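Fold this complex.
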Amino acid sequence: MAVRSVERAKAAGGGSRPAERVAQRVEDQSPKRVSEPAVEGVTETLATTENDTRLLSFDELRAALRAVGEERYHHKHPFHLMMHEGRLSRGQLQVWALNRYYYQSIIPIKDSIILSRRPDPVFRRAWRKRVVDHDGDTTSEGGIKRWLKLAEATGLNANQVRSGRGILPATRFAVNEYLNIVRNRSLLEAVASSLTELFSRDLISLRMEKLRQHYPWLAGGLDYFEARLTQAPEDAKFAVNYVHDHAKTRAEQELAIQALRDKCDILWAQLDALYFAYVQPGWPPPGAFRIEAS
Amino acid sequence: MAVRSVERAKAAGGGSRPAERVAQRVEDQSPKRVSEPAVEGVTETLATTENDTRLLSFDELRAALRAVGEERYHHKHPFHLMMHEGRLSRGQLQVWALNRYYYQSIIPIKDSIILSRRPDPVFRRAWRKRVVDHDGDTTSEGGIKRWLKLAEATGLNANQVRSGRGILPATRFAVNEYLNIVRNRSLLEAVASSLTELFSRDLISLRMEKLRQHYPWLAGGLDYFEARLTQAPEDAKFAVNYVHDHAKTRAEQELAIQALRDKCDILWAQLDALYFAYVQPGWPPPGAFRIEAS
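Structure:
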């Protein structure tokens, strides 16, 4: 089990900053060879502790989770960097809002799967908050409705967004993998995969500032982010405690860390697909939305 | 049901040739707006027959399936065009073989899921051939082993390929969606999703010719394709007959056609991800294989 988790950590491999990626841009014609992936950062730490079966303390576990985010969370993705520098067109913000809606729409579904897997009503009462946060109740419209308002602020029609017409197949595949993870892995890993919420507050704060600065016409559509500023840290706190309390061996801790790494990949892949289709080379696949010059 | 299938056909939308895509390349800075997806080709045909509930004849059904391939099968993907024009480097062929191995490796798993869903032993005896074709038996090494030989011919180590280390997360997400389809949709749709085999013979013939011409050092690794030249048409013939015999309504026929469209998207998305990571802009995500200048 320990070997398996370390193997998976290796499989997930190292990472690099977008700036380094730009520097490493592949030239089309020159002969190449493929090497083993660079194993750096947190994965290096894991790889070198292959025989270390010592249980991580709460602080060590939290630090290991944070190191995953530092390395792989999508705050460093080139698409987000363009967004924060004001370099996205309105059309590019539209396809971002449209595709990301599919992700938003499955969040309460994945949380309902998690609810369905835990016999303990105390856990379910706590986790249920997430479904309410997204689906709403009599006092709150909920995150899905708020994301629709953001999409409308970009100029999209809400029905069109809700229908999912024109989203990238790659968006659907990446998001559905999130459902696969919470269905098919241990409940510990399912809970751990939510821990990107450890990192989302900082990204959302920055994003709200930059959206207001560069795209003032979007300012009326930011309620979703406003709500997440308080919701996400509450959820992350609960989930970190859960992972700490329920990962009884180092191998289980490593599986939880890997689940977070895989979740980061799901977020990252969505932005890769947007960038490919709508920035460079700018080739939306058959059936996807086309941005037209206004 | 009919409305649902037409809706899904619309969702899948139109398509365009790579050449058109290049022409439609998105410029980063200009303001854009998002329009409804262009609905053309076969989807146009379906959309305009929304109220047509007439069952398609065998020939009409086959023609509708072939039209899906003409529009969305990955024979027209820019990555394949580069391959056939001799413009891929050895490293780019390596990452193609490496990532595609993951697809190859799940084929007998998805066929085993299909086997598990059909109580009829006559069906299972026929479909079992596919598992044997890929996993091998005492007389044949099987397709997975043959693909490993291809990967080795590109210069990769077989164990490294088998481990899946360094494959693109987007490859895993797209391929896992194929498993989701055969698990979660009707058996009719699961069978129909295999029908890209209607188109694979022509692509494989062309590919073998072009690989021998442009990359003669690969010639020893082409057994996989040689075997598929006869296996794929046999399988496609069985599956087309099955879909014709078991789709009892036009709505079911449309669901089968949509399953083939979705399968085409799965193949296309794998090449989009390869192109993004290793051609242009050439940004492999954290943990993925890096092609190094030799």
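The first helix of chain A runs from residue 2 to 12.
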